[in-house]
Amino acid sequence: HTVQRGRMPCAPCGWSDFGGPGVLGAVGILTLVLCSCSGQPASQPRNLPANSSSEHQGGLVFIHMESSLYSLPCSPMEMEVADPTYHWVRDKTGIELFSVTKEGHLLFQHFQAGDSGKYSCTISYMKHGVPVSHTFHYSVFGYHVLGGLDTVLLFHSKLCEDEGNKMFLWVLQEKLRQLEIEQHCKLQLTTTFCFPSLSNPLDEFIVQVQLEVSVFGPHWDKYCNSQDMDMVTDCYRRTVQHNLGQVQFALTRFFKEHKSFHVTGADIPSINFTNEFVSFLKTEQCSGGYGQTKQLQRCLHCCIVCPPGMFSPPKDSQCSPCPVGTYSLIYGVASCTPCKDSMITRVPGASSVTDCVKKERTKQAVSITHRIPVLLLMILPALLAMNFLFIISSCYWFYQEYKASSPRASKMTGSTTSMDKVTNSFRILRQGPQAGPDAGPAGDTSHLATSASQGADEEHMYG
Asked: CA 54 → CA 33, 150, 282, distances in Å?
Protein backbone atom coordinates (compact mmCIF):
# COMPACT_ATOMS: atom_id res chain seq x y z
CA HIS A 1 0.00 0.00 0.00
CA THR A 2 1.77 3.09 -1.12
CA VAL A 3 1.62 6.68 -0.32
CA GLN A 4 0.64 8.93 -3.09
CA ARG A 5 3.66 11.06 -3.45
CA GLY A 6 3.00 14.74 -4.11
CA ARG A 7 5.21 16.89 -6.23
CA MET A 8 7.10 16.93 -3.06
CA PRO A 9 9.17 19.88 -2.58
CA CYS A 10 9.97 17.25 0.00
CA ALA A 11 11.27 15.15 -2.85
CA PRO A 12 14.94 14.25 -2.56
CA CYS A 13 16.09 16.77 -5.13
CA GLY A 14 19.15 18.06 -3.33
CA TRP A 15 19.89 15.35 -0.82
CA SER A 16 22.44 13.25 -2.60
CA ASP A 17 25.45 15.33 -1.58
CA PHE A 18 25.74 16.03 2.13
CA GLY A 19 29.21 15.48 3.30
CA GLY A 20 30.76 13.95 0.20
CA PRO A 21 32.57 10.63 -0.05
CA GLY A 22 34.73 11.43 2.92
CA VAL A 23 31.74 11.40 5.28
CA LEU A 24 29.01 9.15 3.92
CA GLY A 25 30.08 8.16 0.46
CA ALA A 26 31.10 4.65 1.50
CA VAL A 27 27.69 3.91 2.98
CA GLY A 28 24.52 3.39 0.94
CA ILE A 29 22.43 6.48 1.73
CA LEU A 30 18.73 5.90 1.31
CA THR A 31 16.67 9.04 1.28
CA LEU A 32 12.95 8.73 0.71
CA VAL A 33 10.47 11.28 2.02
CA LEU A 34 6.81 10.77 1.17
CA CYS A 35 4.10 13.29 1.91
CA SER A 36 0.37 13.47 2.34
CA CYS A 37 -1.38 10.20 3.14
CA SER A 38 -4.59 11.81 1.89
CA GLY A 39 -3.20 12.03 -1.62
CA GLN A 40 -3.01 15.83 -1.67
CA PRO A 41 0.44 17.17 -2.40
CA ALA A 42 1.95 18.84 0.63
CA SER A 43 3.44 21.66 -1.37
CA GLN A 44 5.49 24.46 0.09
CA PRO A 45 6.16 27.81 -1.53
CA ARG A 46 9.58 28.12 -3.04
CA ASN A 47 10.33 31.36 -1.23
CA LEU A 48 9.51 30.92 2.42
CA PRO A 49 8.19 34.06 4.11
CA ALA A 50 10.69 36.07 6.08
CA ASN A 51 8.72 35.91 9.28
CA SER A 52 10.51 35.64 12.57
CA SER A 53 9.16 32.09 12.92
CA SER A 54 6.84 29.78 11.04
CA GLU A 55 5.53 26.20 11.20
CA HIS A 56 5.35 23.79 8.25
CA GLN A 57 4.12 20.21 7.83
CA GLY A 58 6.87 18.22 6.19
CA GLY A 59 4.58 15.20 5.67
CA LEU A 60 4.94 11.45 6.08
CA VAL A 61 8.29 9.68 5.92
CA PHE A 62 8.57 5.91 5.44
CA ILE A 63 11.84 4.17 6.29
CA HIS A 64 12.42 0.47 5.73
CA MET A 65 13.37 -1.51 8.82
CA GLU A 66 17.08 -2.26 9.22
CA SER A 67 17.99 0.35 6.60
CA SER A 68 21.76 0.64 6.46
CA LEU A 69 21.62 4.42 6.64
CA TYR A 70 18.75 6.78 6.08
CA SER A 71 19.15 10.55 5.89
CA LEU A 72 16.24 12.90 6.60
CA PRO A 73 16.84 16.55 5.67
CA CYS A 74 15.62 19.36 7.88
CA SER A 75 13.74 21.09 5.08
CA PRO A 76 11.84 19.27 2.31
CA MET A 77 13.29 21.77 -0.15
CA GLU A 78 16.73 23.06 -0.81
CA MET A 79 17.18 26.33 1.07
CA GLU A 80 20.05 28.66 0.35
CA VAL A 81 20.57 30.62 3.53
CA ALA A 82 23.68 31.94 5.25
CA ASP A 83 25.05 30.15 8.31
CA PRO A 84 21.94 28.18 9.30
CA THR A 85 21.69 26.19 12.53
CA TYR A 86 19.61 23.03 12.87
CA HIS A 87 17.77 21.71 15.89
CA TRP A 88 16.03 18.30 15.81
CA VAL A 89 13.64 17.08 18.51
CA ARG A 90 11.39 14.04 18.74
CA ASP A 91 7.75 13.86 19.89
CA LYS A 92 7.91 17.42 21.26
CA THR A 93 9.95 16.21 24.22
CA GLY A 94 12.55 18.92 23.85
CA ILE A 95 15.32 16.32 23.82
CA GLU A 96 17.81 17.22 21.13
CA LEU A 97 18.90 14.55 18.66
CA PHE A 98 22.63 14.40 18.04
CA SER A 99 22.92 12.17 14.95
CA VAL A 100 22.77 15.23 12.71
CA THR A 101 25.16 16.20 9.93
CA LYS A 102 26.46 19.72 9.50
CA GLU A 103 23.97 20.09 6.63
CA GLY A 104 21.13 19.43 9.08
CA HIS A 105 20.28 15.88 7.99
CA LEU A 106 19.06 13.50 10.68
CA LEU A 107 20.66 10.06 10.32
CA PHE A 108 18.98 6.72 11.04
CA GLN A 109 21.17 3.63 11.02
CA HIS A 110 19.64 0.12 11.25
CA PHE A 111 16.18 1.66 11.60
CA GLN A 112 13.94 -0.13 14.10
CA ALA A 113 10.19 0.03 14.69
CA GLY A 114 10.74 2.01 17.88
CA ASP A 115 12.49 4.75 15.88
CA SER A 116 9.12 5.68 14.37
CA GLY A 117 7.49 8.80 15.73
CA LYS A 118 6.98 12.53 15.25
CA TYR A 119 10.14 14.52 14.51
CA SER A 120 10.58 18.28 14.23
CA CYS A 121 13.48 20.26 12.87
CA THR A 122 14.00 24.00 13.27
CA ILE A 123 16.30 25.83 10.91
CA SER A 124 17.42 29.24 12.16
CA TYR A 125 19.35 31.98 10.36
CA MET A 126 19.68 35.75 10.04
CA LYS A 127 18.05 37.66 7.23
CA HIS A 128 18.68 41.40 6.89
CA GLY A 129 19.67 41.44 10.52
CA VAL A 130 16.43 39.80 11.65
CA PRO A 131 16.49 36.31 13.22
CA VAL A 132 14.32 33.91 11.22
CA SER A 133 13.34 30.32 12.02
CA HIS A 134 11.26 27.71 10.23
CA THR A 135 10.10 24.50 11.89
CA PHE A 136 9.23 21.41 9.84
CA HIS A 137 7.24 18.52 11.32
CA TYR A 138 7.54 14.92 10.07
CA SER A 139 5.68 11.73 10.91
CA VAL A 140 8.16 8.88 10.52
CA PHE A 141 6.92 5.32 10.04
CA GLY A 142 8.90 2.12 9.70
CA TYR A 143 7.85 -0.48 7.15
CA HIS A 144 9.12 -3.63 5.48
CA VAL A 145 8.39 -5.61 2.33
CA LEU A 146 6.97 -9.10 2.73
CA GLY A 147 9.20 -12.15 2.68
CA GLY A 148 10.51 -14.74 5.12
CA LEU A 149 11.47 -18.37 5.53
CA ASP A 150 10.22 -20.99 8.01
CA THR A 151 12.50 -23.99 8.46
CA VAL A 152 11.69 -27.28 10.19
CA LEU A 153 14.63 -29.38 11.49
CA LEU A 154 14.44 -32.96 12.82
CA PHE A 155 17.22 -34.54 14.91
CA HIS A 156 17.67 -38.03 16.39
CA SER A 157 18.57 -38.24 20.07
CA LYS A 158 18.90 -40.97 22.71
CA LEU A 159 17.47 -38.75 25.43
CA CYS A 160 14.64 -36.25 25.72
CA GLU A 161 15.43 -33.84 28.55
CA ASP A 162 14.61 -30.15 28.85
CA GLU A 163 18.09 -29.11 29.99
CA GLY A 164 19.76 -31.14 27.26
CA ASN A 165 17.46 -29.67 24.59
CA LYS A 166 18.13 -26.12 25.81
CA MET A 167 21.87 -26.68 25.65
CA PHE A 168 21.50 -28.14 22.15
CA LEU A 169 19.57 -25.05 20.95
CA TRP A 170 22.28 -22.77 22.35
CA VAL A 171 25.04 -24.77 20.58
CA LEU A 172 23.08 -24.75 17.31
CA GLN A 173 22.42 -20.99 17.52
CA GLU A 174 26.11 -20.27 18.08
CA LYS A 175 27.13 -22.35 15.09
CA LEU A 176 24.67 -20.41 12.91
CA ARG A 177 26.14 -17.00 13.86
CA GLN A 178 28.70 -17.03 11.08
CA LEU A 179 26.03 -17.89 8.51
CA GLU A 180 23.98 -14.88 9.69
CA ILE A 181 26.91 -12.56 9.08
CA GLU A 182 27.67 -13.99 5.67
CA GLN A 183 24.05 -13.89 4.45
CA HIS A 184 23.05 -10.57 6.11
CA CYS A 185 20.09 -12.29 7.73
CA LYS A 186 18.66 -13.11 11.15
CA LEU A 187 18.10 -16.70 12.30
CA GLN A 188 15.85 -17.31 15.29
CA LEU A 189 15.31 -20.77 16.80
CA THR A 190 11.81 -21.13 18.21
CA THR A 191 9.67 -23.98 19.58
CA THR A 192 11.13 -27.42 20.24
CA PHE A 193 9.21 -30.69 20.42
CA CYS A 194 10.46 -34.08 21.53
CA PHE A 195 8.63 -37.35 20.80
CA PRO A 196 9.52 -41.07 20.49
CA SER A 197 10.88 -42.30 17.19
CA LEU A 198 8.52 -44.47 15.13
CA SER A 199 11.25 -46.92 14.18
CA ASN A 200 12.63 -47.34 17.71
CA PRO A 201 10.20 -45.78 20.23
CA LEU A 202 11.88 -47.25 23.33
CA ASP A 203 15.47 -46.14 22.75
CA GLU A 204 15.30 -43.16 20.39
CA PHE A 205 13.60 -39.75 20.23
CA ILE A 206 12.98 -37.17 17.54
CA VAL A 207 13.69 -33.54 18.41
CA GLN A 208 11.87 -31.02 16.20
CA VAL A 209 13.25 -27.48 15.94
CA GLN A 210 11.68 -24.54 14.10
CA LEU A 211 13.97 -21.92 12.62
CA GLU A 212 12.61 -18.53 11.49
CA VAL A 213 14.65 -16.68 8.88
CA SER A 214 14.48 -12.92 8.37
CA VAL A 215 16.50 -11.42 5.54
CA PHE A 216 16.62 -8.00 7.21
CA GLY A 217 20.02 -8.38 8.81
CA PRO A 218 22.80 -5.78 8.94
CA HIS A 219 23.50 -4.23 5.52
CA TRP A 220 20.90 -6.37 3.78
CA ASP A 221 20.02 -3.42 1.50
CA LYS A 222 23.51 -2.36 0.49
CA TYR A 223 22.64 -2.63 -3.23
CA CYS A 224 19.43 -0.56 -3.02
CA ASN A 225 20.42 3.09 -2.97
CA SER A 226 17.81 4.62 -5.27
CA GLN A 227 16.04 7.79 -4.17
CA ASP A 228 12.88 7.02 -6.15
CA MET A 229 10.25 5.21 -4.14
CA ASP A 230 9.00 2.89 -6.88
CA MET A 231 12.54 1.92 -7.79
CA VAL A 232 13.69 1.41 -4.21
CA THR A 233 10.70 -0.71 -3.16
CA ASP A 234 11.11 -2.82 -6.29
CA CYS A 235 14.78 -3.23 -5.38
CA TYR A 236 13.78 -4.27 -1.86
CA ARG A 237 11.44 -6.96 -3.18
CA ARG A 238 14.03 -8.33 -5.56
CA THR A 239 16.67 -8.26 -2.83
CA VAL A 240 14.39 -10.13 -0.40
CA GLN A 241 13.61 -12.88 -2.91
CA HIS A 242 17.26 -13.22 -3.88
CA ASN A 243 18.45 -13.31 -0.28
CA LEU A 244 15.83 -15.91 0.66
CA GLY A 245 17.14 -18.20 -2.06
CA GLN A 246 20.72 -17.65 -0.91
CA VAL A 247 19.87 -18.34 2.74
CA GLN A 248 17.99 -21.52 1.84
CA PHE A 249 20.98 -22.78 -0.14
CA ALA A 250 23.38 -21.86 2.67
CA LEU A 251 21.27 -23.64 5.31
CA THR A 252 20.99 -26.78 3.19
CA ARG A 253 24.77 -26.86 2.78
CA PHE A 254 25.29 -26.11 6.49
CA PHE A 255 23.22 -29.09 7.69
CA LYS A 256 24.89 -31.39 5.19
CA GLU A 257 28.23 -30.41 6.64
CA HIS A 258 27.02 -30.56 10.25
CA LYS A 259 25.20 -33.86 10.56
CA SER A 260 25.80 -34.31 14.29
CA PHE A 261 25.94 -31.99 17.31
CA HIS A 262 27.49 -33.14 20.58
CA VAL A 263 26.14 -31.66 23.82
CA THR A 264 27.50 -32.20 27.32
CA GLY A 265 27.63 -30.32 30.60
CA ALA A 266 28.08 -30.54 34.35
CA ASP A 267 24.49 -31.61 34.98
CA ILE A 268 23.78 -32.90 31.48
CA PRO A 269 24.70 -36.37 30.20
CA SER A 270 26.60 -36.61 26.92
CA ILE A 271 24.06 -36.48 24.08
CA ASN A 272 24.41 -36.56 20.29
CA PHE A 273 21.81 -34.86 18.09
CA THR A 274 21.94 -36.21 14.54
CA ASN A 275 20.33 -34.24 11.73
CA GLU A 276 17.78 -36.20 9.72
CA PHE A 277 15.49 -33.76 7.88
CA VAL A 278 15.37 -30.12 6.78
CA SER A 279 12.28 -28.51 5.27
CA PHE A 280 11.78 -24.93 3.97
CA LEU A 281 8.63 -22.86 3.55
CA LYS A 282 8.65 -19.36 2.10
CA THR A 283 6.19 -17.04 3.83
CA GLU A 284 4.78 -13.58 3.22
CA GLN A 285 3.72 -12.41 6.65
CA CYS A 286 4.20 -9.21 8.61
CA SER A 287 6.71 -9.14 11.43
CA GLY A 288 5.42 -8.68 14.97
CA GLY A 289 4.36 -5.08 15.51
CA TYR A 290 3.68 -4.48 11.79
CA GLY A 291 0.48 -4.68 9.75
CA GLN A 292 -0.72 -4.02 6.23
CA THR A 293 -2.55 -0.70 5.99
CA LYS A 294 -3.49 1.80 3.29
CA GLN A 295 -0.98 4.38 4.43
CA LEU A 296 1.64 3.12 2.00
CA GLN A 297 -0.55 2.78 -1.06
CA ARG A 298 2.22 2.35 -3.62
CA CYS A 299 3.57 -0.78 -1.95
CA LEU A 300 1.02 -3.61 -1.90
CA HIS A 301 3.62 -5.95 -0.42
CA CYS A 302 4.61 -3.77 2.51
CA CYS A 303 3.76 -3.83 6.22
CA ILE A 304 3.56 -0.58 8.21
CA VAL A 305 4.57 -0.31 11.85
CA CYS A 306 1.63 -0.26 14.28
CA PRO A 307 1.28 3.16 15.97
CA PRO A 308 0.81 3.66 19.73
CA GLY A 309 -2.52 2.30 20.90
CA MET A 310 -2.34 -0.63 18.48
CA PHE A 311 -0.52 -3.96 18.28
CA SER A 312 0.06 -6.90 15.96
CA PRO A 313 1.16 -10.40 17.03
CA PRO A 314 3.83 -12.16 14.95
CA LYS A 315 2.58 -13.44 11.59
CA ASP A 316 -0.56 -11.30 11.83
CA SER A 317 -1.41 -9.03 8.91
CA GLN A 318 -3.40 -6.35 10.73
CA CYS A 319 -2.78 -3.83 13.47
CA SER A 320 -5.53 -4.05 16.09
CA PRO A 321 -6.49 -1.58 18.86
CA CYS A 322 -5.30 -2.50 22.34
CA PRO A 323 -8.13 -4.18 24.27
CA VAL A 324 -9.80 -2.43 27.19
CA GLY A 325 -7.51 -2.56 30.22
CA THR A 326 -4.29 -2.39 28.15
CA TYR A 327 -2.25 0.25 26.33
CA SER A 328 0.82 0.64 24.09
CA LEU A 329 3.16 3.61 24.30
CA ILE A 330 5.48 3.09 21.36
CA TYR A 331 5.42 2.05 17.74
CA GLY A 332 5.72 -1.58 16.67
CA VAL A 333 4.57 -3.63 19.66
CA ALA A 334 3.45 -7.25 19.33
CA SER A 335 1.32 -7.10 22.49
CA CYS A 336 -0.16 -4.38 24.68
CA THR A 337 0.78 -3.62 28.29
CA PRO A 338 -1.89 -4.31 30.94
CA CYS A 339 -2.85 -1.48 33.30
CA LYS A 340 -1.51 -1.90 36.83
CA ASP A 341 -3.37 -2.09 40.14
CA SER A 342 -6.56 -3.41 38.56
CA MET A 343 -6.99 -0.18 36.61
CA ILE A 344 -8.96 -0.07 33.37
CA THR A 345 -9.22 1.97 30.21
CA ARG A 346 -12.51 3.45 29.10
CA VAL A 347 -12.19 2.50 25.43
CA PRO A 348 -9.94 0.27 23.30
CA GLY A 349 -6.84 1.74 21.66
CA ALA A 350 -5.25 3.44 24.69
CA SER A 351 -1.86 4.96 23.84
CA SER A 352 -0.81 6.35 27.22
CA VAL A 353 -0.53 5.09 30.77
CA THR A 354 -2.69 8.06 31.77
CA ASP A 355 -5.56 6.37 29.92
CA CYS A 356 -5.63 3.82 32.74
CA VAL A 357 -8.11 4.98 35.38
CA LYS A 358 -9.05 3.57 38.75
CA LYS A 359 -12.27 1.71 39.09
CA GLU A 360 -13.22 4.11 41.89
CA ARG A 361 -14.28 6.57 39.20
CA THR A 362 -17.27 4.33 38.66
CA LYS A 363 -17.82 4.09 42.42
CA GLN A 364 -21.07 6.04 42.29
CA ALA A 365 -22.58 3.65 39.77
CA VAL A 366 -21.31 0.65 41.72
CA SER A 367 -22.70 2.09 44.98
CA ILE A 368 -26.13 2.59 43.44
CA THR A 369 -26.02 -0.96 42.11
CA HIS A 370 -25.15 -2.28 45.55
CA ARG A 371 -27.96 -0.28 47.20
CA ILE A 372 -30.69 -1.65 44.94
CA PRO A 373 -30.93 -5.10 46.67
CA VAL A 374 -31.14 -3.44 50.14
CA LEU A 375 -33.96 -1.15 49.01
CA LEU A 376 -35.80 -4.10 47.55
CA LEU A 377 -35.51 -6.04 50.80
CA MET A 378 -36.98 -3.10 52.71
CA ILE A 379 -39.84 -2.34 50.35
CA LEU A 380 -40.79 -5.85 49.25
CA PRO A 381 -42.42 -7.03 52.55
CA ALA A 382 -44.58 -3.89 52.74
CA LEU A 383 -45.62 -4.35 49.13
CA LEU A 384 -46.48 -8.01 49.73
CA ALA A 385 -48.54 -7.16 52.84
CA MET A 386 -50.47 -4.42 51.04
CA ASN A 387 -51.08 -6.73 48.13
CA PHE A 388 -52.36 -9.49 50.44
CA LEU A 389 -54.75 -7.12 52.25
CA PHE A 390 -56.01 -5.84 48.93
CA ILE A 391 -56.71 -9.37 47.72
CA ILE A 392 -58.54 -10.31 50.96
CA SER A 393 -60.67 -7.15 50.95
CA SER A 394 -61.50 -7.62 47.28
CA CYS A 395 -62.58 -11.18 47.85
CA TYR A 396 -64.77 -10.17 50.83
CA TRP A 397 -66.38 -7.34 48.92
CA PHE A 398 -67.06 -9.60 45.97
CA TYR A 399 -68.60 -12.23 48.25
CA GLN A 400 -70.93 -9.70 49.86
CA GLU A 401 -71.99 -8.35 46.48
CA TYR A 402 -72.61 -11.83 45.17
CA LYS A 403 -74.60 -12.82 48.25
CA ALA A 404 -76.79 -9.72 48.07
CA SER A 405 -77.59 -9.99 44.36
CA SER A 406 -78.05 -13.77 43.94
CA PRO A 407 -81.76 -14.92 43.24
CA ARG A 408 -81.05 -18.37 44.56
CA ALA A 409 -80.02 -16.90 47.89
CA SER A 410 -83.43 -15.09 48.12
CA LYS A 411 -85.31 -18.27 47.25
CA MET A 412 -83.41 -20.22 49.84
CA THR A 413 -84.30 -17.54 52.43
CA GLY A 414 -88.06 -17.84 51.54
CA SER A 415 -87.94 -21.62 51.71
CA THR A 416 -86.45 -21.43 55.14
CA THR A 417 -89.34 -19.22 56.32
CA SER A 418 -92.02 -21.63 54.94
CA MET A 419 -90.33 -24.56 56.53
CA ASP A 420 -90.41 -22.76 59.84
CA LYS A 421 -94.18 -22.35 59.48
CA VAL A 422 -94.65 -26.03 58.72
CA THR A 423 -92.57 -26.94 61.70
CA ASN A 424 -94.72 -24.73 63.98
CA SER A 425 -97.91 -26.31 62.63
CA PHE A 426 -96.69 -29.82 63.41
CA ARG A 427 -95.66 -28.67 66.86
CA ILE A 428 -99.25 -27.42 67.53
CA LEU A 429 -100.70 -30.73 66.36
CA ARG A 430 -98.44 -32.69 68.71
CA GLN A 431 -99.37 -30.53 71.69
CA GLY A 432 -103.17 -31.12 71.36
CA PRO A 433 -105.58 -29.60 73.97
CA GLN A 434 -102.75 -28.81 76.37
CA ALA A 435 -101.06 -26.52 74.00
CA GLY A 436 -102.33 -23.44 75.78
CA PRO A 437 -105.29 -21.58 77.23
CA ASP A 438 -106.46 -20.63 73.77
CA ALA A 439 -106.87 -24.26 72.64
CA GLY A 440 -110.41 -25.39 71.75
CA PRO A 441 -112.61 -28.02 73.64
CA ALA A 442 -111.38 -31.58 73.65
CA GLY A 443 -114.36 -32.96 71.83
CA ASP A 444 -114.15 -30.50 68.93
CA THR A 445 -112.84 -32.92 66.31
CA SER A 446 -113.74 -30.72 63.43
CA HIS A 447 -111.12 -28.30 64.57
CA LEU A 448 -108.53 -31.05 64.47
CA ALA A 449 -109.65 -32.18 61.07
CA THR A 450 -109.46 -28.67 59.78
CA SER A 451 -105.99 -28.18 61.22
CA ALA A 452 -104.82 -31.48 59.80
CA SER A 453 -106.27 -30.62 56.44
CA GLN A 454 -104.49 -27.27 56.44
CA GLY A 455 -101.21 -28.88 57.42
CA ALA A 456 -101.54 -31.43 54.65
CA ASP A 457 -102.25 -28.69 52.14
CA GLU A 458 -99.20 -26.69 53.30
CA GLU A 459 -97.08 -29.80 53.22
CA HIS A 460 -98.22 -30.52 49.70
CA MET A 461 -97.57 -26.91 48.69
CA TYR A 462 -94.06 -26.61 50.08
CA GLY A 463 -93.34 -30.32 50.15
From this structure: 21, 51, 50
Question: Is the CB of residue 153 less than 8 Å from the CB of residue 342?
Answer: no
Strands 344-345 and 130-145: unpaired
Rounded Cα gap, residues 308 and 311, in angstroms: 8
- Asked if 67 and 30 touch (Cβ cutoff 8 Å), the reply is yes
Distance of alpha carbon 304 from alpha carbon 142, whole angstroms? 6
Q: What torsion, rounded to 10 degrees, do the Cα atoms 409, 412, 414, 419 define?
A: -160
CA distance 158 to 261: 13
Q: What is the pLDDT along the chain (463 residues), one digit of tens a residue?
A: 332 232 233 333 323 233 333 333 333 333 343 333 333 333 344 454 545 788 888 888 999 999 888 899 998 887 888 889 999 998 866 667 778 998 899 999 889 999 999 999 999 999 888 899 999 999 999 999 999 999 999 999 988 888 888 889 999 999 999 999 999 999 999 878 899 988 888 889 999 999 999 999 988 998 887 767 778 888 999 999 999 999 999 999 999 999 999 888 777 788 899 998 999 999 888 999 999 876 666 677 789 999 999 999 988 888 999 999 999 999 999 999 999 988 899 899 999 999 999 876 444 544 555 566 666 777 878 888 888 888 888 888 877 877 777 655 444 444 444 445 434 544 444 444 444 444 444 444 444 344 444 444 444 444 3
Q: How many CA atoms lie within 13 A of 251 on its CB side?
A: 26
pTM exceeds 0.90: no
CA angle 334, 336, 340 (to 5 degrees): 150
Asked if 148 and 214 count as a contact pair (C-beta separation under 8 A), the reply is yes
Amino acid at 371: R
